[in-house]
Design goal:
Length: 511
């Protein structure tokens, strides 16, 4: 039995065929790349405004529209045809009849390919099947798609191709487009949340003379005119706190940060953070504000307080769980028959004895025995507890060694007044009471410099100007950073940070 199916045309052949049709269109006298097309409506506006109108109402009103978009489908029926086109968000149908268009325009229609941009004008009506359509009086050529678009039913299956060619991914999938529309909505809602509470949105430098603001490896560049090295911003923290010194009591920034680190499902070298600072407040105030902010986003974006994220149900009903870092480690300890106690974790040696019972931790971190109390607790927490924190959970009592910019707890100086919020096993927010003692801050910077001397490339350097700013006096202040990319991942049920970044970083394409 013979197979009647024709093999799929070669991509190069398709491109060549499209080039020939483009040449024929220009030979017909159409401008190949017009400068402008005047529209009365977008396709989305037509669907929103007339989508519920009956055929009788459309016939009575005889609404005339002039609209443009990308060709999505072509259905030829002898001397008539239907063309579906889109503005990326909505689809609309055009009805064309050869005896109602001049010969040149009908020839243009026959040379159209999927993906081409066209304009049309005509009156709105409903077909016999009830579909909202434009009865075309004209057809204007606006741009040729020389490369065929992805299959409109199956889209792009190659994940790497989707990230490299996001433009093609957006053409192929309205679901992908909706993720980024939701991201934009989240950022608008964040701005409204802080604007309504009296915060001022500010902008701080993205190129800095020192790699400060967080513990991370920076990207380095060189400014030719000044002949100095500059660093892509790790975090805006120290600049925002300078503004608190200067008299702004509530500031926030939605900022791009850059960290020269690895790439995985929740890390990208370039990412977006929300950071805010409030004078006369402490981290407990920010804990409540964080609940208010994220709960309101969940409700407005998802319409409910329990949402799906992969195989998990995440419950955002308040109040959210609170645990100290030690409590979280003990609670999620993998070997329940040898679960440690808070007393075991009260000393470095006791904690080290517990850590050495975890064979996989020892195999991953060979230098456990050389770590101080704070870094050892941090490593154990990341290994044992972090991935288990699915529902929103505030982790408190961070070791001082892990928090060079945080105020120490008044009752136990081993810890600082700080929390991190975890959702779906990811750190979403980090907040603390800010050091406003310039002497204390210098000592913390000096401790960081000793770590750098021992080879820690992520340790901070001393920022003398920031210490000078603190010396002018800074009121009690608390500040917080929220990872917008990770928050968008959760609210759109995406499981890689690359799926919520329009243009994620990739290795150079092989030639």
């Amino acid at each position: 039995m013979e197979d009647d199916q024709q093999p799929a045309p070669n991509l190069n052949d398709q491109i060549e065929e499209r080039r020939r049709s483009f040449e024929q269109i220009t030979h017909l006298g159409f401008e190949p790349y017009p400068h402008k097309f005047e529209r009365t409506h977008s396709i989305t506006r037509i669907v929103q405004q007339f989508g519920q109108s009956t055929a009788e109402r459309l016939e009575t009103e005889r609404s005339h529209v002039r609209v443009a978009g990308r060709v999505h489908a072509i259905n030829k029926m002898g001397k008539a045809a239907f063309v579906r086109f889109t503005d990326g968000a909505e689809l609309l149908q055009i009805y064309l009849k050869s005896n109602e268009l001049d010969e040149q325009t009908w020839e243009l229609f026959k040379l159209l390919d999927l993906g081409d941009f066209i304009g049309t004008e005509g009156r709105l009506f409903r077909t016999r099947t009830g579909e909202l359509s434009i009865h075309a009086e004209s057809l204007t050529f606006l741009a040729k798609a020389l490369v065929p678009p992805p299959d409109k039913y199956y889209g792009l299956h190659d994940i790497e191709l989707r990230y490299r060619q996001r433009y093609a991914d957006l053409i192929a999938s309205r679901d992908v487009r909706r993720v980024f529309e939701t991201r934009s909505q989240i950022i608008r809602l964040i701005r409204r949340f802080f604007d309504e509470r009296g915060y001022i949105e500010v902008e701080t430098p993205m190129l800095t003379s020192l790699p400060t603001g967080a513990a991370a490896r920076p990207f380095t560049t060189h400014h030719n005119a000044l002949d100095i090295d500059l660093y892509a911003r790790i975090a805006p923290e120290l600049y925002l706190k300078r503004l608190i010194v200067g008299g702004f009591e509530k500031v926030y920034e939605i900022n791009r940060n850059f960290r020269n680190e690895g790439i995985d499902r929740s890390h990208n070298p370039e990412f977006t953070m929300l950071e805010w600072y409030e004078a006369y407040s402490e981290y407990e105030d920010l804990l409540k504000l964080t609940e208010d902010l994220i709960a309101s986003l969940v409700e407005q974006i998802c319409g409910k307080m329990v949402i799906e994220y992969g195989e998990n149900q995440i419950d955002f009903t308040r109040p959210w769980t609170r645990m100290t870092m030690c409590e979280a480690v003990i609670h999620y300890w993998p070997n329940t028959s040898e679960r440690p106690t808070l007393e075991d974790f009260s000393t470095r040696d006791g904690m080290l004895r517990c850590a050495e019972t975890l064979a996989d931790l020892k195999s991953q971190i060979s230098h456990l025995s050389s770590l101080d109390y704070g870094h050892l607790l941090g490593e154990i927490f990341e290994h044992v507890a972090e991935a288990q924190l699915i529902n929103p959970t505030f982790i408190t009592e961070f070791p001082t060694e892990l928090s060079p910019l945080s105020k120490q707890n008044q009752d136990d100086p081993r810890f600082v007044d700080r929390f991190e919020l975890f959702i779906a096993g990811m750190e979403i927010a980090n907040a603390f009471c800010e050091i406003n003692d310039p002497v204390d801050q210098r000592q913390r910077f000096e401790a960081q410099m000793k770590l750098r001397e021992r080879g820690d490339e992520e340790a901070m350097v001393i920022d003398e100007d920031y210490i000078r700013a603190l010396s002018y006096g800074m009121p009690p202040t608390a500040g917080e950073g929220v990872g917008i990319d990770r928050l968008v991942m959760i609210l759109t049920n995406q499981h890689s940070i690359r799926d919520v970044l329009l243009f994620p970083h990739m290795r150079p394409e092989a030639k």
